[in-house]
Design a protein that fits this description.
Elements lengths: L8 H17 L4 H32 L39
Length: 100
């Protein structure tokens, strides 16, 4: 079922982005646009399959398949935001600060 001309997720995604830009320009004849569209569908299905596979692998690797967002301290939050929620930390406005 996989297209042997699609090497990996990253190259498929890059090609798909190029196809989208080309089709958005609207300069191709109808037949070439249809061929590009068909290729785009194949690439999109390939990418979705790979993402679904990756999601299943992540679920298997996490505790009991329970996926949770990463804590802000390791999810790329700015260093200044790390420690938010800890006692004594300035956690920004609270529900008590909202004037209702």
């Amino acid at each position: 079922m996989d297209d042997p001309n699609i090497k990996d997720f990253e190259s498929a995604l890059a090609e798909l982005e190029t196809i989208v830009k080309t089709l958005e320009e609207g300069q191709l004849p109808l037949e070439q646009s249809l061929e590009r569209f068909e290729r785009g569908i194949a690439l999109s299905r390939f990418c979705h399959t790979r993402l679904d596979d990756a999601e299943r692998r992540i679920e298997l690797l996490t505790e009991q398949g329970d996926t949770r967002p990463a804590p802000a301290s390791i999810a790329g939050a700015p260093i200044a935001d790390r420690g938010a929620g800890e006692p004594g930390a300035d956690n920004g406005p609270s529900d008590d600060d909202v004037p209702f």
